[in-house]
Amino acid sequence: MPPWMEILLNVIGYAGFIGVAKYHKPSDENAPDHGA
Questions:
Q1: Of 1, 13, 21, 24, which alpha carbon lies 20 to 30 A from 34's?
Q2: What domain of life does the UniProt record list for this protein's source (predicted)?
Q3: DSSP 31
């Protein structure tokens, strides 16, 4: 696997993680299933 593809996967994975975190943030007070 070429180095640029590894970097691209890392960037996409990080951006996806941030996107999911921001997307699920408002639903924290609606459905507090984390228990934290």
A1: 13
A2: Bacteria
A3: -
Helix (H, G, I), strand (E, B) or coil at 2: coil
Longest dimension (CA), the chain: 43
Whether the CB-CB separation of 34 and 28 falls below 8 Å is answered with yes
Residue 4 reports pLDDT greater than 90: yes
User: Distances in Å between the alpha carbon of 35 and those of 10, 16, 31?
Assistant: 30, 24, 10
Residue 34 neighbours by CB under 8 Å, 6+ apart: 28
10-25 pLDDT, tens digit each: 999 999 999 888 877 6
